Amino acid sequence: MCFHRRLVFTCSHHAWLNLTKACDTEASFERGNTDTGCSIRWSHGYDTIRVQDKCAKCAGTQQGDSYRFGVVKDQIQALKEHLKLIKGDRQIKEEAWLSGEVEPGRSGEEDGGEGDRDEKGQDAGGSLSSFSFSPGGTGRLSGGTMVGEEEYLIKINSEQQQ
């Protein structure tokens, strides 16, 4: 077995450098006495060099991963901001409903909470901007109309107004 210098990277990969001491088999091959040389490499602690870099393969992989993680992090951040907008709007409407400023099932807009509603009192547009939340309700939209407790409260309110 021949002793070689070895370069050890922080990723724990290594690279073999030049030969420091040839074994008898390698020396015989270099003299021309044998047909094959030594294929076993060995390194001594004194001939091992540690560097604070990654090997070329790991550095390339890290750049690709960093790019992919950056794209995913950007997408997650955009979704968090969008969710914060939705939750903030929902929280404002919920607080207005709990304080009694807006009737249950109303959108809480400046025009008295009517929004775009048809003659049955249901949301005509089906947009999320006119969605209201009531505690204990389903809080979902189905086909542009509210379902669950909100729909029931709107129906009762419209019957009482008539």
Structural description of this entry:
40% of the residues lie in helices and 15% in strands. With 162 residues, the protein is α/β, with parallel strands linked by helices. The chain folds into two domains: 2-53, no CATH class; 59-161, no CATH class. Strands 1, 2, 3 and 4 form a four-stranded mixed β-sheet that branches. Strands 5-6 form a two-stranded antiparallel ribbon. Strand 1 (2-8) and strand 2 (14-21) form a beta hairpin. The longest helix is centred in the middle third of the chain and has 43 residues, at 56-98. The radius of gyration is 37 Å and the shape is rod-shaped. The chain starts with a strand and ends with a helix.
